[in-house]
Amino acid sequence: MTSRFDVIDSPGLGRVSRSGAGLVLAARELRALADGFVAVLLPAYLLALGHGQLEVGFLSTATLLGSAIATLAVGRWGHRFALRRLLLAAAVLMVATGLGFATITSLWPLLVVAFMGPLNPSGGDVSVFLLLEHTVLAASASAEVRTSVFARYSFVGSIFGAVGALAAAVPDWLAGSAGWQMLDALRAMFVVYAALGAAVWVLYLRMPRPPPTDERTPPASLGPSRGIVLKLAGLFSVDSFAGGLVINALLALWLFERFGISLTGAGAFFFWTGLLSAVSQLAAPALARRVGLVNTMVFTHIPASLCLIGAACASSLEVALGLLLVRSLLSQMDVPARSAYVMSVVTPDERPAAASFTAVPRSLASAIGPSLAGAMFATGFMSAPLIACGLLKIAYDVALFAGFRKVSPRS
């Protein structure tokens, strides 16, 4: 039986315990809970502070850009620090970000806080936590179960993100039933975000320290897999740029402005999208074993993009929500398959570098989208970001299938 203090090699970022994978999943649950309500409440909070649609886009860009730079820094210099210390530092930033948003009202200070912290306005995880936690999970799983491990990671993120989205209704309840001012109720949710960050810090504090004699190896650079990784990074960047046009915060803003949906209604909608995404990720490993990782990514993504385009053109809230729910059932099935595919087409020593090389360009590309979408919203082109996102994602899927359908995993 494996002891909770048993360790395994994690090239480039030291050694991690097998019990660390369980702590990673628990921390992912808490972070997803926080991300679930923040993504819905962020645009409402900024509008309540007197900021406009363009400012929502700018601030979303700042969060994604800061996450990209943090991921790049960890990929380049993270080997100098214990993995546990990096995770603890990221949790401290999460606490500081929540408190900063709860107390600051001016745009420029908020942009700084958003840039420095791991605030996540999107539906998936784009923060520096992703690289660190993926390293733990990849080192903990054999090739046979790696897709299932990443599927579980994505599944708990979707489930708890869905529950978090329901919590977006709390400010409405506080304002309507408890007599709170709406702005104070929104601020209170960012205090809750900070408290969840503190709980994440406690979880990572429980991670066993590496043995004193442990010598961390320098990070392995990309070797035989360089060409594959660079091509994948380029394609993933196109996909992420497209996704940046319709992150959850902007999709919530679109629903607020286009159809006048309430915070409670938006929270319920994102709850169901999260549940459907979770169901799809449970099905991803079985589908990948049957049709392959690349086919799983492509053949579920294209119909999801068509649903997004259809929702953009819908004339009623009911039709738009229906198409968006179908999209949620399909659009995230590629996430565990993509993570497992990247980890499988490189050698074990290249995995940290591959994770960084694919994550950083994706984060940088996704950071551009929110500002462009905010500008489109502000000029009256409310459906343009959704249509552009769908078309770009279809182009990405076609290119991915053409370039990698014959590239098999190494192990």
Account of the protein in words:
By secondary structure, the chain is mostly helical. It has one domain (10-210, 218-404): Growth Hormone, Chain: A (Up-down Bundle). 75% of the residues lie in helices and 1% in strands. A hairpin with a 5-residue loop joins β1 and β2. The longest helix is centred in the N-terminal third of the chain and has 30 residues, at 19-48. Residues 1-17 and 212-216 have low confidence and may be disordered.
SSE layout and pairings?
Elements (H helix, E strand, L loop, with lengths): L6 E3 L5 E3 L1 H30 L4 H25 L5 H21 L3 H10 L11 H13 L5 H21 L3 H8 L4 H24 L20 H19 L3 H12 L3 H29 L1 H20 L4 H15 L2 H11 L6 H28 L5 H21 L7
Antiparallel strand pairs: 1-2
Average pLDDT rating? 83
Assigned CATH class: Mainly Alpha
Biggest sheet details: 2 strands, antiparallel
Strand content: under 5%
**What is the C-alpha radius of gyration, as a whole number of Å?**
20 Å
| Number of E-type strands | 2
H/I helix tally: 16
**Based on helices, strands and strand pairing, what is the structural class?**
mainly alpha
With strands numbered from the N-terminus, the spatial order across the biggest sheet is 1-2
SSE pattern: EEHHHHHHHHHHHHHHHH
Level-2 CATH architecture: Up-down Bundle
Assign an overall shape.
globular
By CATH, the superfamily comes out as MFS general substrate transporter like domains
Helix content: over 70%
Low-pLDDT windows of residues: 1-17, 212-216
Number of domains: 1
C-alpha end-to-end distance: 25 Å
Summarize, please:
This protein is mainly α.
Key features of this structure:
single chain, 411 residues, mainly alpha, Growth Hormone, Chain: A, two-stranded antiparallel sheet, 75% helix, globular, disordered N terminus
